[in-house]
């Protein structure tokens, strides 16, 4: 009798381990394996950050004589890297840090604001621009650049003449040609601007801001970053807007809502997931941008990537403990933004869910 009862108890125990207790729940063994895998993967992902933190509290002996993993056990921590960063070079560090925050945030806001409106327009309005009109615009743009850059004509006069010629030619010749483009062509042209390598256009951009006396200013970097990252916003938000049923907007318009009201109060709240993901991506791209900042800034508008490069090229060379402290400082704003936007991404995933 006791043997039979023990065997039955083992069967029940095994069922409790490998069978879920209720619908929608996992078995105990499955939970153990799953959480063990998650902990193992989290340790792999977080180890580089842990290594950065402990390296920022090391000196030359601890870095070169390692690897040492545990402070106060393997090595004696020191604040030398943080003192060099915030005491010895505190003016350069704070200025570059403030510049990066302002330039990244403002350029990201402009990119998301203008790019989302452009994406919404492309997803809801059918455009059919005349091909010959676009060719006239490109030709006049090239002639304007040549007139200003080669012949030294005042850019205000050149732009005024080009605009007048464009409207005249568009009205006079544009009606004679029927070839037109569509929304797909416009969308492809927009994203093709991002495919183009920044090194191809960095010299013309530099010359443009030099002529406008805007080099080494926040405005130059903000405008450049906003324009460079705007195609990504249009590309990503276009798909989110296309996934929103147009019936909601038509119902609002039947009630008297304008297109601007529909976009602000109906479409944008339903696109929180897309807006959050796009904002985070554009923020990271603007925060880490190096090439354009290298050409457009020298001292007043210097950003953190330029400061890090200058530290690497200094007389002392690369000091890994100081570089670790700089990297920790640099990733803080991006991590904070990711944490703040995470809840909006999670809420956006539930939009359209149906309760049964």
Please provide a written account of the structure.
The protein is mostly helical and 356 residues long. The protein is 75% helix and 0% strand. The chain has 16 helices and no strands. It has helices spanning 2-18, 28-55, 60-64, 80-88, 90-124, 131-149, 155-173, 183-195, 198-211, 218-242, 246-254, 259-270, 272-288, 291-296, 304-312, 320-349. Helix 5 (90-124) runs antiparallel to helix 13 (272-288) and helix 11 runs antiparallel to helix 12. The longest helix is centred in the first third of the chain and has 35 residues, at 90-124.
Produce the secondary structure layout:
Elements: H1 2-18, H2 28-55, H3 60-64, H4 80-88, H5 90-124, H6 131-149, H7 155-173, H8 183-195, H9 198-211, H10 218-242, H11 246-254, H12 259-270, H13 272-288, H14 291-296, H15 304-312, H16 320-349
Helix pairs in contact: 2-16, 4-5, 4-16, 5-10, 5-13, 6-7, 8-10, 10-13, 11-12, 13-16
From the structure above, extract its key features:
0% strand; flat; 16 helices; mainly alpha; disordered C terminus; 356 residues
Q: Tell me the quaternary state.
A: single chain
β-sheet strand percentage: under 5%
Summed over residues and divided by their number, the pLDDT gives a mean of 82
The computed structural class is mainly alpha
Overall, the morphology is flat
Distance between the termini: 48 Å
Q: Give the count of helical stretches.
A: 16
Q: Strand tally, please?
A: 0
The value of Rg in angstroms is 29 Å
Helix content: over 70%
Q: Catalogue the unreliable spans.
A: 350-356
Give the H and E element order: HHHHHHHHHHHHHHHH
For the report, how would you describe the main beta sheet?
Answer: none
